[in-house]
Every structure is written in C-alpha cells, then in structure tokens.
C-alpha cells in the first residue's frame, strides 16, 4: 500500500519509513551550477519544504553515513556530486514567525525563531565546532554573525536554507490592505528583515556562508528590500526547474492505478479518476516553454488519493482545507485599486489576459500606485498560484489563465461575496441553487438574480456588459464543486458552450441531480428601446413575446441542439441532461427556456 506523505515534509522520515517520494534529486547538479545564492518561488503547498529537507539531508556532513539509505536508489545516488555531505546546515522557516503585534513584537518573534534555530544547530553540530558562538537574546542578528564566525574558524562551510522567506511579511501586508506601514517598517530603511538579509549577503561575500537556498511565494518582499539582498539568482522561471516541485501526469497515473487496484476496482475507473484530478488539481506551468509538462498540486493530489485509498471513493469536498487560505490572497487583490476589475478580466475565458513578461522586480508601492496597469497584479496572482501560464500568444506574449476548478472556485467565491455581502442572501442563493440542481427549474434563481444579484451593478456597468457578465453571474450562483464539475467555454466538437455542469462521477448515484448545458445571450436596453423601469413592469410572458427576446432564445436553442448529442453520448444518461437557453435583458430581467424533450430524452 502506498504511504502518501500528506502534510509531511521531512525527507529523512519519508525515506526511512518507506513513504512515497517523487524523486527530484536529478536536479541537484543543475541547482549547484545555477549559483551559490538561489531564490526559488512556488505557490503554497507545492512541496518547497520537502525540497529543502532533501537538500539538507544531501549536503549535511552528519548524514554521510546514511547516504546509501537516503539516496542510494534515487537518481543522485548513482552519481553524487563532490559537494554531498560537505556542509553544516542552518535552516530557518519563516512560516513559524508570527505576524501578530506591532513591529517590536514581530522583531522579537523573528529573533526568537533565529535564536532557537541557532541553538538547535549548536546542539546538533557540537562535535564539529572548535569555537562557541555567543547567543544574544535581544539581537539574533548578532547571534547569527557569531555563528558564521565560529563555523568558519572551525574549518567548515555553512549552507543556509530559508523556507517561506516572505511568509510573515506577506501576512503583515495582507492583514490590513489599507495600511501598509507595518509592512514597510519591516523592510525599508533599517527594517529588521532588510538588515538580516544584508548580513546574509555580507557573510556570503566574505566566505562565511558557502551556499544559500531560499524558497518563497512571491518576489515582492525581495523587491522591497532593494539593496538588502540583491545578489540571489532567481531560478523559479527557468524551464529546467519547471518540475522541481509538483507532480506530472506521468508520475500521477501509476499512483492512481495502484490505489484503484488496492480498492479492488476495475481499471476502467482510472480514466474517470484521472479526469477528476486533472480538472481540479492540474494546470500549473512555471515557465514560458509550453512543451514542459503541466504540474499537479501534490498536496491536493495526496489528499484526494489518501482519502480514496481509505474509503475507496473520492472525497466529497474537493478543496483541502490546507489551501483554503489562498482565498485570502484573492481577497487581498480584490481590495487593491482596480482589483475587482482584474478579477472580471480573469474570469473572461473568451479573451484571456496576456503579459509580455511576468513582472518580478516590483514592490508593494507598485501594486498601489498602478491603478490602470494590471501587469503587477496579474504577476502577483501568478506567483500566488491563482493564475498560471496557459499558452504563448501573439508576439510571444504569455497567456495567463486560471489553472483548474479548485482555483476557479476561489474566484467565484470572491465574486459571490462581493455581490451578496449579506449572509442571509448567500444562504438563500445556496438553497435555490440546490433546488435547481434537482428540478432544473431556473425561475426561482432568475427571480433572485433580478432582485438581488443585479442590484450590485451600477449604471456605468452597462457600457461593458455582455454575455460574459451574465455567464459569470450565473456561474457565481451555481458553482458547486462537491457535486459538479463546472466548466465555461467547454469544447464540444470544436464548438464552445457557455457553461457546462456535469455531475462528478462519484456523485452520479444521487439520482435527483441533473446535468446541465447553458447558453447565454444578452440584450442591451438601447436595442430593446426600453428603460429598466419599463422592463421591470412587464410580466414574464410579455417579455418572452418580445421579438428580440424570441430571436435570442431561438439562437441559443439552436446552439444547444448541436451541443447536446456530444455530452449525451459521453455520459450515457441523456435523460439527466438539461439544456437551458438564458437571455438577460440588461441588468434588469432574465428570460429562459428549456430545449424540449425529444425521443424520451431531455434536450
């Protein structure tokens, strides 16, 4: 049975206890050649801590006797580099530094973490040190300098590993997006974080530190430190390191096959499980080379497969709670100037956002000052893992997009909170949506859309409203990843439907749930030659009788007739497939129609 290392980033424990380890040691020679001070960025829960743990065990002078056990059957075990087991390892994990309190409290939190790490280092390497460093409770930077001197005087070399270098600084920034002073106090002038990295830089230049490897999520903190630490080589966008963290399709497929075998299930289920994993957890690309494989989030995959292994069925909740805090990143971006308009752009599948290059030299000031230029926000969303490089477009531009349905769900939730800030409205919307999943009667939701959801749009929104606006509104109300695989602009024999809701394979035993295809149309008030007030006064029957509405409905129904056979054939349950044409009349009214039943099938 596969032992999935869910939530475990201790390389030594994984190897000794024979847990699953996806071999990334073949990259060690490339890492060594890349530079002596490296910065590697990836989204949260992508395996960065395990990478650092692997490097620590590989280079640690004290694990030389365990080399065969830890690395013998891995790629690097066959051809180790001369530097293996040559260093004393000092590790800091800034995710352990609390961001609570004022600057003085945060400084004490940081000093406490650094001093505790140094104390552990001294205990671990006591036999290797001929000099004893001084520990300063109120000045961990001095403690660190003393340690560097002691290691050098003892004839050894120091390898510094820093995990989540930007974690607590980002927490400080995002705790109150309207007040960034505490964040700037950490980094500007003689800010404590900048001072610490200045000492790292100086110690490396003096030969007291031989190598530094830093992981984090975004380059914002490094940019705000400016000269504090401007010597690191960034390797996070290099194609050769695209697969350094994460899982590939090639690596995931045999894991799925083995789990299904352990559950005694037919291997025909493999395609269904792999498709679910692909839809919800895949889609990350960390370089501009589109031939490099897309990466899966390993934490979510292990969450899914471990549950499947235990219960022989997928988890009901597709989003592991470990990633729920990523919604906070989106909330932070939405609170910035122009933030909600950026989210609107991101949700536009017909016209994906593009950048000539990702911005990687920018600080918090850029995010606040540039209101008409979305490059910085889009780049930051890429680093957060809520956008990814989907393709290369015109003139070599990077085509950015939402990587998968888990992340799309986070955007949808943000839009829903914006449109329905009152909990009672949100709860009512969920109740209406649940009834719709079972009845296919859209009218209660259409009434709710008219009375509640459209109310958040102001008159100025009419100038950019279109079918996408309406589709996004319904996607926001209907999105449910517990029961459905939901996609917009789904390819159906080279045509594209506006929105498809297909019951997850593991939920198809709920007989009352239905599959849906939507086609949306939008009619402007100017084209209708009516005011919003005049539309609100008309009955549904009067609206349906309007020639423009009739034409829009017929156009949508014609498209649905073309889509229906494809999905009916794929899922083999045409009686559960409902095809709905939806026409929005400005941001005032909604008219809909179901494609009539035919030959004992829906649609």
How would you characterize the overall build of this protein?
- Helix content is 46%, strand content 13%.
- By secondary structure, it is an alpha/beta fold.
- The chain folds into 4 domains: 11-241, 3-Layer(aba) Sandwich (Rossmann fold); 249-283 and 288-315, no CATH class; 322-401, no CATH class; 421-595, no CATH class.
- Strands 2-3-4-1-5 form a 5-stranded parallel beta sheet. It has a 5-stranded mixed beta sheet with strand order 9-10-11-12-13.
Which key phrases capture this entry?
globular, 603 residues, 26 helices, 4 domains, single chain, five-stranded mixed sheet, five-stranded parallel sheet, 46% helix, Rossmann fold, alpha/beta
- Low-pLDDT segments: 458-464
CATH topology of the largest domain: Rossmann fold
Number of strands: 13
Task: Output the radius of gyration.
Answer: 27 Å
How confident is the prediction overall: mean pLDDT?
88
Largest β-sheet summary:
5 strands, parallel
Number of helices: 26
Please give the structural blueprint.
Blueprint: H1 11-16, H2 28-34, E1 37-41, H3 48-59, H4 67-71, H5 75-78, E2 88-93, H6 103-124, H7 140-153, E3 158-163, H8 167-175, H9 181-187, H10 192-205, E4 211-216, H11 220-225, E5 233-234, H12 249-262, H13 269-281, H14 298-311, H15 326-335, H16 339-346, E6 354-355, H17 364-369, H18 375-384, E7 388-392, E8 398-401, H19 405-419, H20 423-439, H21 443-451, H22 467-478, E9 484-492, E10 495-503, E11 515-523, H23 525-528, H24 532-537, H25 540-545, H26 547-571, E12 577-585, E13 589-594
Parallel strand pairs: 1-4, 1-5, 2-3, 3-4, 11-12
Antiparallel strand pairs: 6-8, 7-8, 9-10, 10-11, 12-13
């Amino acid at each position: 049975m596969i032992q999935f290392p869910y939530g475990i980033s201790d390389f030594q424990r994984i190897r000794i206890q024979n847990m699953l380890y996806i071999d990334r040691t073949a990259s060690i020679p490339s890492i060594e050649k890349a530079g002596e001070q490296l910065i590697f960025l990836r989204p949260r829960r992508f395996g960065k801590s395990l990478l650092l743990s692997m490097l620590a065990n590989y280079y640690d002078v004290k694990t030389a006797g365990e080399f065969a056990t830890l690395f013998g059957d891995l790629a690097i075990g066959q051809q180790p580099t001369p530097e293996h087991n040559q260093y004393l390892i000092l590790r800091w994990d800034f995710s352990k530094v609390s961001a609570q309190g004022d600057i003085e409290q945060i400084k004490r939190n940081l000093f406490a973490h650094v001093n505790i790490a140094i104390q552990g280092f001294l205990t671990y390497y006591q036999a290797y040190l001929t000099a004893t460093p001084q520990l300063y409770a109120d000045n961990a930077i001095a403690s660190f300098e003393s340690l560097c001197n002691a290691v050098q005087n003892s004839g050894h070399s120091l390898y510094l590993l820093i995990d989540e270098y930007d974690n607590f600084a980002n927490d400080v920034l995002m705790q109150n997006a309207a007040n960034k002073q505490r964040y700037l106090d950490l980094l500007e002038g003689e800010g404590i974080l900048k001072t610490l990295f200045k000492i790292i830089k100086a110690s490396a230049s003096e030969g007291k530190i031989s190598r530094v490897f830093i992981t984090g999520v975004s380059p914002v903190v490094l940019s705000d430190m400016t000269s504090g630490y401007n010597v690191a080589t960034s390797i996070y966008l290099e194609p050769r390191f695209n697969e350094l963290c994460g899982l590939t399709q090639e690596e995931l497929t045999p894991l799925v096959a083995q789990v299904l075998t352990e559950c005694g299930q037919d291997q025909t289920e493999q395609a269904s499980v792999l498709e679910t994993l692909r839809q919800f957890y895949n889609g990350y690309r960390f370089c501009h080379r589109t031939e490099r494989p897309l990466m899966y989030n390993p934490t979510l995959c292990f969450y899914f497969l471990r549950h499947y292994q235990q219960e022989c069925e997928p988890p009901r909740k597709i989003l592991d709670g470990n990633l729920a805090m990523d919604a906070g990143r989106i909330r932070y971006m939405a609170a910035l100037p122009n933030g909600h308009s950026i989210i609107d752009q991101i949700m536009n599948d017909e016209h994906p956002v593009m950048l000539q290059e990702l911005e990687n030299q920018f600080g918090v000031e850029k995010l606040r000052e540039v209101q008409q230029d979305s490059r910085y926000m889009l780049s930051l969303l890429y680093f957060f893992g809520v956008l990814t490089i989907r393709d290369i477009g015109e003139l070599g531009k990077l085509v950015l997009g939402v990587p998968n349905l888990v992340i799309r769900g986070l955007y949808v939730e943000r839009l829903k909170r914006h449109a329905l800030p009152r909990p009672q409205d949100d709860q009512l919307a969920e109740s209406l949506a649940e009834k719709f999943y079972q009845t296919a009667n859209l009218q209660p939701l259409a009434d709710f859309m008219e009375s509640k959801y459209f109310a958040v749009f102001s008159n100025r929104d009419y100038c950019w409203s279109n079918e996408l606006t309406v589709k996004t509104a319904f996607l926001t109300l209907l999105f449910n990843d517990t029961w459905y695989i939901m996609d917009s602009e789904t390819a159906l024999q080279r045509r594209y439907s506006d929105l498809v809701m297909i019951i997850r394979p593991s939920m198809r035993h709920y007989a009352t749930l239905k599959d849906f295809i939507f086609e949306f149309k939008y009619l402007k008030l100017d084209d209708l030659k009516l005011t919003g007030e005049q539309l609100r006064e008309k009955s549904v029957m009067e609206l349906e009788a309007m020639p423009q509405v009739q034409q829009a409905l017929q156009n949508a129904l014609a498209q649905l007739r073309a889509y229906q056979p494809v999905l009916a054939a794929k899922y083999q349950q045409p009686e559960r497939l409902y095809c709905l044409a939806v026409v929005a009349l400005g941001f005032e009214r909604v008219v809909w129609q179901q494609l009539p039943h035919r030959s004992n099938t829906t649609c």
